[in-house]
C-alpha cells in the first residue's frame, strides 16, 4: 500500500529537521572544497561531479592534491583506502538496519558519511514502517548540502580571490562539532568515551601517521564486546 501523502510530507519534514545540524557544516565545508579545487585549476563542474559521484568529504580535500600533483592510479587507490578505511568499521553497526532497505539500500550505503552516520546510528525513526525512506531522505539532504556548497565554492573561487591556507582543518572542525552534538543529545556516553580513549591510545602508540586504522579496530572491538554483554544481560 502506498504512503499517505500527508504521512510522506511529515517524513520529509522530520528528515529535513534531522539533517539541519549537518547543513551549515556541509555547505561551509563544501564551499571550502570548491574554492580549494578552483585554486588547483578545476571549476564548478568538477566540484559538482566529485561531490555527486565521489561524495567523500575528507577524501575530496585530499583528492585535490592528488589531481593537482598528477598522482598515479595506484597512489590514488591506496590513499583512498587509507583515508576511507574507517567506513569499514563504523558501517558494521548499520548492516542490520540497511539489510531490508530494498531500492534504497545502494544509495544508503553510498551516502553513509561520518556525519550521516552520527545522525542515524541511534536507530530512531519517526515511523518504523517507513524507516528506510526516512534514512534515505536524511542521507539525500546531507549530500544536497555538500553538493550545493561545493558548486558555490567553485563559482566563488572564480570571481573572488581566497587564501586556501589552513582550509583542510575544516573537516576536523566538523568532526568535533558532530562529536559535541552527539554528546549533548544522547544520555549514553560510552560510545563517545570509547572512541575518544581508543583514538588517544592509538595516537600515542602508533603516532599521527598510522593511528587511524588501529584506532578503528580497537573501538569496534570494544563496542562489540560491550554490545554482546548488554544483549546477554537482557
Record keyword descriptors for this entry:
75% helix; 12 helices; 234 residues; 2 domains; mainly alpha; globular
How many distinct beta strands? 0
SSE pattern, N- to C-terminal: HHHHHHHHHHHH
Number of helices: 12
Instruction: Specify Rg, calculated over alpha carbons.
Output: 19 Å
Number of domains: 2
What separation lies between the terminal Cα atoms? 35 Å
In short:
This protein is mainly alpha-helical and 234 residues long. Helix content is 75%, strand content 0%.
Secondary structure elements and their pairing?
Blueprint: H1 5-39, H2 44-53, H3 57-68, H4 73-84, H5 86-90, H6 95-98, H7 105-110, H8 114-120, H9 131-159, H10 169-185, H11 190-206, H12 212-233
Descriptive account of the structure:
- The chain is mainly α and 234 residues long.
- It has two domains: 5-168, no CATH class; 187-234.
- The protein contains twelve helices and no strands.
- It has helices at residues 5-39, 44-53, 57-68, 73-84, 86-90, 95-98, 105-110, 114-120, 131-159, 169-185, 190-206, 212-233.
- Helix 1 packs antiparallel against helix 10 (169-185) and helix 8 (114-120) runs antiparallel to helix 9.
- The relative contact order is 0.15.
- The model has no long low-confidence stretch (mean pLDDT 82).
